Amino acid sequence: EVDTVQRDHELLPDVEFFLKYSIGTVSPGAEDVRVTKYLWGLKHVRGLAAKQKRRMVSMVLERPGKSKPFYIIGMYDVASRDHYVKVGTYRIDTVLKVVEFLGGRGWEVVE
Fold first, then answer.
1. Which run of H or of E encompasses 46?
2. What is the mean pLDDT of each run of 10 residues along the chain (111 residues)?
3. d(CA 31, CA 5)
4. Which of 48, 51, 73, 75 has the fewest other C-beta atoms within 10 Å?
């Protein structure tokens, strides 16, 4: 069975997908939108989302800069309209094209 997020990932334009599944970014750049939608397409993220009892959303926590070529994106369970519970953190290296998850032993490559 195709879940709602997977269907939206396939059918919605990038910006609409970003607006539906992201919080906290007032004026996202094109790269924010692209990287976030890419992250939601990964099996690891889809598995994390499937384990949540409520809706999950993402938030860009850090953007790449001169000294760090990666995004940090937090994944949150929506507990209520104004309360979010962090369920995971991802680091996406935009140069090496590596995605890592912050697990119990530190950053671990996921896909």
1. helix 43-51
2. 80 92 83 92 89 88 92 91 89 93 92 74
3. 20
4. 51
Closest CA to 38 of 68, 9, 2, 77: 9
- How many CB atoms sit inside 10 A of residue 103's CB? 11
Give the residue among 74, 84, 78, 32 at the shortest CA–CA distance from 56: 78
Entry pTM: 0.86
Q: What gap in Å lies between CA 56 and CA 25, rounded to an integer?
A: 16
Residue 103, Ramachandran bin (φ over 0: left; ψ between -120 and 50: alpha; else beta): beta
Phi, psi for 79 (deg, rounded to 5): -75, -35
Neighbours of 106 (CB within 10 A): 8
Pairwise CA distance, residues 13 & 99, whole Å: 23
Residue with tokens 């990287």, as numbered in its chain: 35
> How long a stretch of residues is the chain?
111
- pLDDT, residue 2, reads 54
Cβ atoms within 10 Å of 59's Cβ, excluding its own: 16
